[in-house]
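B., you asked whether I could sanity-check this one before it goes into the benchmark set. Here's the sequence:
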Amino acid sequence: MSTVLTLLGYLVALTAVLAIVYAAKAVRLQNRFRRMGKAQGRTLDEVVKLLGPPSNHTKLPTGREILEWRRVGFHHALSFTNGICDGQMDVNAP
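And here's what the prediction gave me:
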C-alpha cells in the first residue's frame, strides 16, 4: 500500500512541476507580446524575431498569412498581407 501512495505522491509532484513549467512558458510569451508593443505595420520576419517561431502558420489563398502563438491559457493570432502585419485577429480563449 505504501508503494501505491509513494507513486501517487510522485505523480502529484510531477503534475505540479509540469503546471509551473507550462505557466512560465505562457508568461514569457505574454511578456514578449507586451515588449513588442503594436504589431501592426511590422514585417513578418521582425515579428518572428521578437516573439519566436509561431505554433501555427497558415497561408490563405487570398495571399494572407495567419501566424498563431499558443500556450496553455494563451492564444494570439496575427494576420499578415505581403509580409506586413495587418493586426491581431480575434481569438476565442481555448
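One thing to flag: The chain has a mean pLDDT of 87. Otherwise nothing jumped out at me.
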